[in-house]
Structures are given as C-alpha cells and as structure tokens.
Amino acid sequence: MEQKNDSMIVAREAFQAVGLKWEGTFAGAGAGEIRVIHTEMQKRVQEIKHVLNPDKLLGLSYHMTDTGFTHYAVVAVEQIEDIPDGMVTIEVPSLTYAKCEHTKGQSIDKSYNNIYAWIEQEGYKVHQGDVTHFEEYPMQQDPYDQDPEFTILIPIEK
Q1: Which residues lie across from 92 on neighbouring strands?
Q2: What's the pLDDT score for residue 115?
Q3: CB contact at 8 A, 49 and 82
Q4: What's phi and psi for 153, nearest 5 deg?
Q5: What pLDDT is stored for residue 11 in this prediction?
Q6: How is the chain split among helix, strand and coil, in percent rounded to 5?
Q7: Would you say 60 and 138 are in contact if contact means Cβ atoms under 8 Å apart?
Q8: Is the pLDDT of residue 137 over 90?
Q9: Which has the closest alpha carbon to 55: 67, 65, 64, 42?
Q10: Residue range 35-94, pLDDT digits in tens
Q11: Cys-Cys link to 111, which of 11, 83, 102, 131 (CB 3.0-4.6 A)?
C-alpha cells in the first residue's frame, strides 16, 4: 500500500528551549539511545520553569557529520530561568519549514522520504543551517513505542 503524507509550509518564530542534549552516532540513535533522553525529559519536565507547551516534546537534530549528530530533547519556554541540573538551553532561529504528520501504521523512513521528495517537487531546498530537522511528539507518548505519531519539520528555503 502506498503511503501518503500531506505536507505544507509553515513559518515558526524563533524560540528558546530547555532540555537534554545527546551526541552520538547514527548507529547509537538507531539502537534507541535518543529514547533514553526522551524518557528522562518526560520525567523531568516539571523541573523546567515557564514551559509554553507542556504537552509537546521537541526533538531537535543538529550538526550532521559523517558519523553522527547532536539531538536535543527539549520543551519551548517563555524565558530561561533556573536551568535544572544536567539540562541545557538552546535558541532556535526563526525558520520556514516543510511540515508533515507521521501517523500510526506508517513507515518512518517513507514519511521522511515523502517530505524530502515534496520539498524538491515544490521547488524548495533544505535550509543549510544548524537545525537539520525537528520532530514534535505528544509528551505522554512512550518513546519506546514502535508505532509512534509525531510531526516532522524540515527547515527549507527557496
């Protein structure tokens, strides 16, 4: 069965976020290392002050290299104050994104392939900045769920 992911363009204002940082390899990410920090964020989100959307966990991927990348499991905040132990702050610039919803029963690889194909088909290219992509998860979703639902956002430019 062919998988379709409806995509659209959205603009997001710059925002500040607080959470946990992971650095590792693609193999480590594939083995579930990122799920560990997502689980920890769910347990510790109440430690963070001024959270804007407590029902959304953001997964921000940065700085792709040949062997790996940096991932932040964070929540957007109105202002940064009293950063909890072991957590970091990050500022995400104002960007335009291609956005699609990945729903239960779909292939994650196909969702990503579909949105990248849509970006090219629409005459856009992937933005060459620090943020390579980000995902929005329901805060209460089990990070170990083999069939998750989330929103994919890819920074783009003309």
Answers
A1: 15
A2: 97
A3: yes
A4: -130, 125
A5: 97
A6: 20, 40, 35
A7: no
A8: yes
A9: 42
A10: 999 999 999 999 999 999 999 999 999 987 888 999 999 999 999 999 999 999 999 999
A11: 102
Question: Residue 71 corresponds to which tokens in the numbers above?
Answer: 């991932």
Per-residue confidence (pLDDT) for residue 119, from 0 to 100: 98
Q: What is the token pair recorded at 127?
A: 């933005």
Cα(25)–Cα(106) distance, rounded to whole angstroms? 25
Answer for the pair 156, 127: CB distance below 8 angstroms, yes or no.
Answer: yes
Burial class (CB in 10 A: 0-12, 13-18, 19+), 152: buried
Of all residues in the chain, what percent carry a pLDDT higher than 90? 89
Instruction: For residues 82 and 87, give the distance between their C-alpha atoms in angstroms, rounded to a whole number.
Output: 10
Q: Which two tokens stand for residue 119?
A: 């970006």
Assess contact for 71 and 61: CB atoms under 8 A. Answer: yes
CA distance 20 to 85: 10
Cα 135 to Cα 137: distance, rounded to the nearest angstrom: 6
Q: pLDDT at residue 26 above 90? A: no
Helices (DSSP H) in the chain: which residue ranges? 26-30, 33-44, 108-121
